[in-house]
From TrEMBL:
Catalytic activity: 1,6-anhydro-N-acetyl-beta-muramate + ATP + H2O = N-acetyl-D-muramate 6-phosphate + ADP + H(+)
Gene (name only): anmK
EC number: 2.7.1.170
Domain of life: Bacteria
Keyword Secreted: no
Residue ranges crossing the lipid bilayer per the database entry: none
Organism expressing this protein natively: Marivita lacus
GO molecular function: kinase activity
Record-stated family: Belongs to the anhydro-N-acetylmuramic acid kinase family.
Protein name listed in UniProt: Anhydro-N-acetylmuramic acid kinase
C-alpha cells in the first residue's frame, strides 16, 4: 500500500447483498479509523441468467459444485471494479450460506483471482475467522457505522438500521474512542426485512419487489399472523445474533390464506416489528435511527417504523450519507483495517470472545 502506516488510502469496497440484485462498489479515503473523504461509486446489476445461477447456488458450501456461480461472481466483480483506481479492494463475495453455529459461513468469491485480474491487492473472506473463533461472523458493517457516527459529528447515541434482504441494527456511542472499545457498539441482525416480501411478490405477482410499498399500502395488517411471527424464538434471543437469508422462509406460510395486499401489508409490518423488538436491546434509546439499504425506499415500512419508535427515523441521506453504497463503503473501510492489523469485529457486534481482525489478503 502507498503511504505511511497511518496515512489514509483510497479503498474500493464491493458488496453483493442477499437480495442478489447486483454488485455495489464505492471508494472511501480512510486510515481504517476515520473517514476522510468519499469517492466515486458504481453498480452493476446481475442479469436474469446470472441471478438464476446464483439463486440455484444458495445454501451451497465449499466443495459443492459451484463452478458456474463462482464464474458469475468473479466476472461481475471484474466488470464492476475494473474502471476504478484504488490502493486496496475490499471484496465481500456472495453469501450463499450462513450457519455460524453449524457449518460456518460461506461467501462465494475467489479474492486471489480477483487480485490477479484487477492487478490490485484484494482483502476478502472477512467473516470466517470470526466464526472459527466462536463469533456470528455477522454483522460486520457496525465498525463502519461507528466511523459514520463520528463523521456526522453525532454527540449522542445513534443507531443505524440496514433494511436489506435481512435487517441489521447497530447502536453506537459516539463518545467511544474506538469501535472495539467495550460499550462502543451493540449490533445484531433484527430479522427478515425485504427478502420475504420479495419472495411473496415473486410467488403472487411475478415481480421482484413491492416497489414503493404500493401493494402493502392497499392492504391491512392482519394481527394474528403478526403475533405468530413475533412468537419466533429468534426475537427472544439476546444479541449478538445473526441470520441466514432463508431462516424465515416459513413466513410465507403465515400469510398463505391472505389476499395479496393484506399479505404484503402484514409482511411489511413483520419486518418493522422485528426492528421494534430489536430496538428494545439498545442500551439507551438512540437520538435517531438512520436507515440504509433498499427498505428505506419503502414508505410503508418507513411509516410503520416512524410511528412505533420513540426516536426520529430517517434515511441516512438526512445526514449526508449514501444509503445505496454504505455497505460497499463498509467493506472498503474494513479492508484498510485488515491491512493495518486492526480488529473488524468485537464481542458486542458478533459475539466473538475478544476483538478480532478477519480477512485474507491477496497481494499482486
Ligand atoms: N423503491 C423501493 N420500494 C420498495 N422496496 C425497495 C425499493 N428499492 C429497493 N427495495 C427493496 O430493497 C431490496 C434491496 O435492498 P438492498 O440492496 O439493501 O439489499 P441487499 O444489500 O442485497 O441485502 P443485505 O443487506 O441483506 O445483504 C430490494 O430487493 C427491495 O426489496
Ligand atoms: C452472512 C451475511 O452475509 N450476512 C449479511 C446479511 O445482510 C444483512 C445482514 O444479513 C448482515 O448480517 C450481513 O451483511 C451486512 C453487510 C453486515 O455484515 O453488516
Amino acid at each position: 500500500m502507498k503511504g505511511k502506516l497511518a496515512d489514509p488510502v483510497w479503498a474500493l469496497g464491493a458488496m453483493s447483498g442477499t437480495s442478489l440484485d447486483g454488485v455495489d462498489a464505492a471508494l472511501v479515503l480512510t486510515d481504517g479509523v476515520t473517514i476522510s473523504e468519499f469517492g466515486a461509486s458504481g453498480y452493476r446489476g446481475y442479469s436474469d441468467a446470472e441471478q438464476a445461477v446464483l439463486r440455484a447456488a444458495l445454501g451451497k458450501w465449499p466443495g459443492d459444485d459451484l463452478e458456474d456461480a463462482a464464474a458469475v461472481v468473479l466476472e461481475a466483480h471484474i466488470a464492476t471494479l475494473r474502471g476504478f483506481d484504488a490502493d486496496v479492494v475490499g471484496f465481500h463475495g456472495q453469501t450463499l450460506a450462513h450457519e455460524p453455529q453449524g457449518r460456518g459461513t460461506h461467501q462465494l468469491g475467489d479474492g486471489a483471482a480477483l487480485a490477479e485480474a484487477l492487478g490490485r491487492t484484494v482483502v476478502w473472506d472477512f467473516r470466517s475467522t470470526d466464526v472459527e473463533l466462536g463469533g456470528q461472523g455477522a454483522p460486520l458493517a457496525p465498525f463502519y457505522h461507528w466511523a459514520c457516527a463520528k463523521w456526522i459529528g453525532a454527540d449522542a447515541p445513534v443507531a443505524f438500521l440496514n433494511l436489506g434482504g435481512v435487517g441489521n441494527l447497530t447502536w453506537v456511542d459516539p463518545a467511544s474512542d474506538k469501535p472495539d472499545a467495550p460499550g462502543a457498539l451493540l449490533a445484531f441482525d433484527t430479522g427478515p426485512a425485504n427478502a420475504p416480501i420479495n419472495d411473496l411478490m415473486m410467488e403472487r405477482r411475478g415481480l421482484a419487489y413491492d416497489k414503493g410499498g404500493a401493494l402493502a399500502a392497499q392492504g391491512q395488517v392482519v394481527d394474528g399472523a403478526l403475533e405468530l411471527f413475533l412468537e419466533e424464538g429468534y426475537f427472544r434471543k439476546m444479541p449478538p445474533k445473526s441470520l441466514d437469508r432463508n431462516d424465515f422462509s416459513l413466513m410465507l406460510d403465515l400469510v398463505r390464506e391472505l389476499d395479496d395486499a393484506d399479505a404484503a401489508a402484514t409482511m411489511t409490518a413483520m419486518a418493522a416489528a422485528a426492528v421494534m423488538q430489536g430496538m428494545e436491546h439498545c442500551p439507551v434509546v438512540p437520538q435517531r435511527l438512520l436507515v440504509t439499504g433498499g427498505g428505506r425506499h419503502n414508505p410503508v415500512m418507513m411509516a410503520m417504523l416512524g410511528s412505533a419508535l420513540d426516536c426520529a427515523v430517517q434515511p441516512v441521506e438526512a445526514v449526508g450519507l449514501d444509503g445505496d453504497m454504505l455497505e460497499a463503503q463498509a467493506f472498503a473501510y474494513l479492508a484498510v483495517r485488515v491491512m493495518r492489523g486492526l480488529p473488524t469485529s468485537a464481542p458486542e457486534t458478533t459475539g466473538v470472545p475478544a476483538p478480532v481482525g478477519g480477512g485474507r489478503i491477496s497481494r499482486v
